[in-house]
Amino acid sequence: MTEAIVVGGGLAGIAAAVAVAQAGLQTLHVAPKGAPDRRTSALMLPSVAYLEAAGLIGDPADLGTALTQIRIIDATGRLIRSPETLFDSSEAGLPAFGWNFANVRLLAEFEAAKAKLGNIETVDSTVVDIERVADGWRLSLGNGDTCTAPFLVGSDGKKSFIRSAAGFRSRESGFTQAALVADLELARPLVGASVEFHYPQGPFTLVPAGGTRANLVWIDDREALRALQAEGSDALRAAVLSKSQHLFGDIRLLTPAHMFLLSTLSVPEAGHDGVVLAGEAAHAFPPIGAQGLNLGLRDVADLAAALKETNRSEADWARKASERYSQRRAADLVRTGGVVDTLFRSLLSDLLPAQAARAGGLWALKLLPPLRKQAFGLGMGSR
After folding, report:
1. DSSP class of residue 91?
2. Which is the most buried residue in 96, 119, 131, 152, by most CB within 10 A?
């Protein structure tokens, strides 16, 4: 008998399916195959530690590039500007803040870990309908099959069908900005430093990807980015050189650039009535501070803990597990979502008080080691 259904084929969805199966539940993973995810994920040490403990990855050095420094450069040109700020992991007594991984490599590792579990079945299909029934939730799949389980996990992305069909309320707002991502080769390597140039329309970030390679995450006005893409690769390369202030010498584009629209999404509760939401089904925000997948993996860790705390011999165990999960996630979702949204909006704001507050905050982080240490913990998602 299927005890849990996990919907979602992305990294958070696979990690959730593995966590549920490792908790001892007979699990069905509904995971429609999509296009390869050519992006990268900067995962902080707590996330990496969870992945290692869960058996989802081996040695992170075999998969990714260590992130040992974070360098912030105010390139806004505004009246009130922030100081250049450098955070070094050695200050916190850490070998690195985290690791930068290619998503395709993480996906392969996660799938390999899932394949070792004997109590999980995977179906390559979509969900077209769900309904509440006496013994749980019945899902109708795109391949014509139906399946029923008392416990349901929706990790099916920002446009989550599970979230809307199961009656979760959500709040979403869009931005006029978009994120442009590409892989680059630099003349001078980043040597473990993630470099963020803060511009009026958003950050322009170079993340080390090993050797002289770097991953670009450029947030700017979506129409400006579209126009730049339309001009071709030479114009894009020239713009990247200008935005990076020529600090790393010549730059070559290794992959086509892809654009992603930005929005925020939040839910007042992440679980109820035997259903839980994980990953972007529960939260989404601009890629500031590398919080996206890190927050999703904290979802998965709390899902595993909630199931461990639940006595499944009780008739309403699924409802209790979903409520425990929601309680565990509440504070982290509010805190992280609020911080990221505030940081992003403060960067975009033309109001002098907002600029002064942002500049003052970075000066404080630069000059006060105790405050900087607190920022390390918040940024890495330590709890």
Report:
1. G
2. 152
pTM for this structure? 0.89
Q: Which domains does the chain have, with CATH numbers?
A: 4-172+263-380 (3.50.50.60)
- Give CB contacts under 8 A, 24+ apart, made by 311-320: 312/3, 312/24, 312/25, 317/150, 318/136, 318/150, 318/151, 318/274, 319/272, 319/273, 319/274
Q: What is the mean pLDDT of residues 173-183?
A: 89
pLDDT higher than threshold 90 for residue 194: yes
| Three-state DSSP state, 25 | coil
CB count, 10 Å around CB of 377? 12
Beta strands in 15-126 (DSSP E): 27-30, 40-44, 64-67, 69-74, 85-88, 98-102, 120-123
Q: What SS3 class is residue 81?
A: coil
What residues contact 258, with CB distance under 8 A and at least 6 apart?
Answer: 38, 180, 181, 182
Query: How many Å apart are CA 339 and CA 190, to the nearest integer?
Result: 27
- Rg of the Cα atoms in the chain: 21
Partners of 252 in the β-ladder: 185
Strands 64-67 and 136-141: unpaired
pLDDT tens per residue across span 201-227: 888 999 999 999 999 999 999 999 999
Three-class DSSP category at 140:
strand
